[in-house]
Each structure stands twice: as C-alpha cells, then as structure tokens.
Amino acid sequence: MRVTTAQSFDRPSLLMASLNSQADRLQIQVATGKKILAPSDSASGWQQLAGLKRAASDEGAYGANIKMAQSLLAATDTALDTIETQLQRAKAFAVQANSETVTPEGRAAILKDVEAIIADLLGVANAKDSRGQPLFGGAAGDAAYARQPDGSIAYVGQGEAAPIPVGDGVEIAATETGARAFGGIPGANGATDMFAILNAFAAALQPGAAPGGIETAMNDLDAAIEQVGTTRASVGARAFRMDLEADRLIDADTARETTRSGIEDADTAASIAELQKTLTILQATQASFTKLTSLSLFDYIR
Prior knowledge:
By secondary structure, the chain is mainly alpha-helical. Helix content is 68%, strand content 6%.
C-alpha cells in the first residue's frame, strides 16, 4: 500500500484538529460545570433542558401570582376581622341599649358610638388592595360603597374580580365582593345588608323610635356577624390552598433542578481527567508530527 506525503501530513493534522476541539470543549466543561453546551452535544438533552426552562418560566409566573393572591387574601382577612370586631361591638351596644335601665342620655351616647362604627366600617369596606383597586368592589369602580342622598349606604361595586391563575388550569378568587360578604343577610324583615342593619339600629336609638327596633337589630347583627364569619372561613380556606400551591411549586422546582442537573451538569473530576488524557495525546501527536515534518526526500535516500 502506498502512503503519499499528503496522507502522511493530513492524518495527523486532522487528528490534532479533533484533539484541539475536544480539549477546548472539555476546558469549557470544567470552567462552566456543564456538559451540554450546544444542541450538537446532545440533541435529546438539549430539548429536555429547553422544556425544563419553559416549565421554570411558567411556574415563575405562577409563583408571582400566588404571592399576589396570598397578599390579597391576607388583606381581605384583615379587613373582615376588623369588620367582625366592629359588628360585635355594635351587638354589645344593642344589648346594652335594650336594657330597661339605660337612660335617654345613655342611648344618645350609644347612638354616637354606633354612628362612629358605621363610619369606620364604611372606610374598611372601601379599602383598596395593593393594586389600588377596591378590596370589596368586584371588577370595577373606585369604591365598593357610597352614601346616598338620603343618608343610606349602598353597594356600588360591579361584577366579580377576575380570578388569578396560579397553576395549569387552576385559578383563585383572591377577594370578595361586598355584595356577597355583607349583603343578602337574612334579617327579620327579609334579606338586608350590614349597613342597612346598622342604620336601622341607629334609627331605633333615636328619641321616640318605635319599640322593638333595638331587639330586631340584635337579631340582625347576629346574622351579619355569622355571615362575615362564614366569609372569613372561605377566605382562610383559599389562603390555605395558596400555601399548598406555594409548597407544590417549591417541590416541583426541586425536582426540576435534580432533573436538570442530571442532564446538564458535568462530572468535574471526570472532565479534568479526560482533559488531561486528551492533552497528553495531543502533545504526543504534535511531537510525532514535528518529527515527520523534519524529514525530507534526502533523508529517505540516505
């Protein structure tokens, strides 16, 4: 078999080029700690890594939404707690005012306290969330409740707030409408709402008011307190669900990182050993090539 001079030069040249390329790749692996640097390193691994990155991006958005939902639910619960406390105070005042021993002056003082409670509850019911939207206003509007020309307080919110996506096909209602939280209360005279009950109580404290109004207010306040408590329980259940979703994301992130590491991360010790081996072979090849190129036709004739 004849071996031409060109072949004698081409083979070691190609080998050295391949060894240089392999050494470069191993050096990058050692520096970055990653064994997949391009699709050519592993087409299937590259696709898996792309899928993991997409999942991480999606769940990052869900994580932000969960934090937002948790914040809104916490604000809602805090507001409901304040409202529940004020309604309980109003109930205590109703019990006090219904006593036969209360004086007209005492009733007048209780009336001022009830009016203060109404004003405070109006402020809480119109509280805004971290996005600047009414906490109990539903989908639109600048406020949930507004005073009417006759002094009554009416719900002016609209619709339902948009649910927040917190997972694939999973959404959560992070707030409550005032209509649902404080309205539709089964009162003595039919369905009513929190402010109507309190205004009726205030009217019953006025001098010359018809008898029975305070006792009716007591019963209606019990119903209002129960409804707010039920709403708080619903909010608490949703908050607990968000805690579970947050834990799920943490577990999914841990599992995803384990999978990514198995696909992408290089064994640094093995990469260093392989690099040393490759450099040794490269150096030997270069030495052989140097000797080859120093030969001439006269060397063979001699």
